[in-house]
Design brief:
alpha+beta, 5-stranded antiparallel beta sheet, 3 helices, 5 strands
Length: 160
Amino acid sequence: MIRNILRRTIYLYSTLGAILLLTFLGGCAGIPITLAPSSSPVAPGVRGTIPAYGSNCQFDLFGIIPVTHSLNTQAALDRAKESADVDVLTDVTVDFGASYYVLFSNNCVRVRGKGVPRAPSTSAATVTPSATATPAVTATPVATTTPVATTTPAATTPKR
C-alpha cells in the first residue's frame, strides 16, 4: 500500500515537473526598434491617414536551423505599403518579436504606420499635341488682387 502511494506520488511529481519544464522552455519577447516620422521625405505637416501593417518572419527548427528566409526589414516595409496601397508611410514604428518553443522558434519584424494617400495624377494620354500646333507664347505675369469676402445684411440677421 505504501509502495502504491509512493509510486503515484513520484509519477505525479515527475509529470508536473515535466509540464513545468516544457512551460519554461517556451517564451516570447518583443522589442521596439525604431520610430520614424516617415519612410520617405514628405512636406512639413503631411500626415498619413490610412493604417498600414506589414511583417516579415523567420522560422527556425530547434531554434537554430532556419526553415525560411532570414529577416528583412525592407520586405516588411514594402508589405506595409502594399497593405495600404500607398508609396509613403508616416508615424512608422518597426519592432522585433520572437517566440521560442521546444521544437521551433519564430522571429518577426513588424512595421506599422499611416499611409499618405496618393495625389490624383493627370494622365499623359489626355494631352496630345496637334500636328498644326502654334508656337508657344510666353505669358507675362499679371498683378492680381485677392477678392475680399463681404457679408450681406440678410445673412447676418437671425431667423425668427
